[in-house]
Amino acid sequence: MIVKKRSFFELQIDKIKKDPKGFFFISLMRFSFYLVLIVLLMILGKIVIEGWGVVSFEFIFSEPKNNMTEGGIWPAIFGTLAVTFIMVLFAVPIGVFSAIYLSEYAKDSFLTRIIRTAINNLAGVPSIVFGLFGLGFFILFVGRGIDEFFGIPLLFGQPALIWASATLSVLVLPIVIVSTLEALNSVPKSHRDAAYGLGATKWQTIKSVVLPQARPGILTGTILAVSRGMGETAPILFLGCAFFLPHLPVADFGIGDYYITFIDPTQQFMYLAYHIFILATQSSNPTLTLPLQYGSTLVLISLTLLLNITAIIFRYRFRKAIGRI
Is the pTM of this model over 0.90? Predict the structure, then answer.
């Protein structure tokens, strides 16, 4: 018996006849996906084509010159990496420990449900609100309170790198907490029971059984936090981000004849996303700076992608280590 091979169009017609509504909605979702993908590729293609000729070693590692119409973006790159690094130091430990407490220690009470709801709602707050919060709380309250307590001149009570990082850490904290909660809840309860059966304590079970298996999910939250933080502009407008600052926010600490250079958290800084915003809106000749805008955008996307790829590699290795691949 010879079975005639049916064409693609005949198969689609059969699907329409069997389930017309299902076929319509599946086609609509498929069309939406490809439409978003095409728009994304068009945007990235435009940025790569326009910015590729601008990006060079000198552009990356030199400072802006001639009213930011020439030169490079190294201070903005350094400031972005410094803020992101300190943001991760603030957000990840607090977010992970908060998620551990909510998942492993806190009881399912009315207060716990309120906290979970507040965390989810915090993720939907506009970013500019976080900037105003950082100005009022971190700078005017905490910073100036530190200056008054120690009786020192205005040092912490002014916009600075540390307050920008702290504000961004509050911004990305819900992402870290929610992703860590999902990772902790994905660990089977039988693994915990097996550890308890062997005589392990609560903390030993969390440290040796739960956290190693949840580590890939925690890294996923860190990836999302880094991507969100590096691309934000509104929260840092009032928190120490400078229009033009050719020197780096670093200081030298002397020990005898040796000097150690470290990031100075009390200084102002340049930020890559804000730098692009300034070139596009506040420049005396935005058309002249258009190539620099594309080049800076390409560098920002490349930095975010590089950090994400690094975290993804670590996540893959952790998953492989626990036998999930």
Answer: no
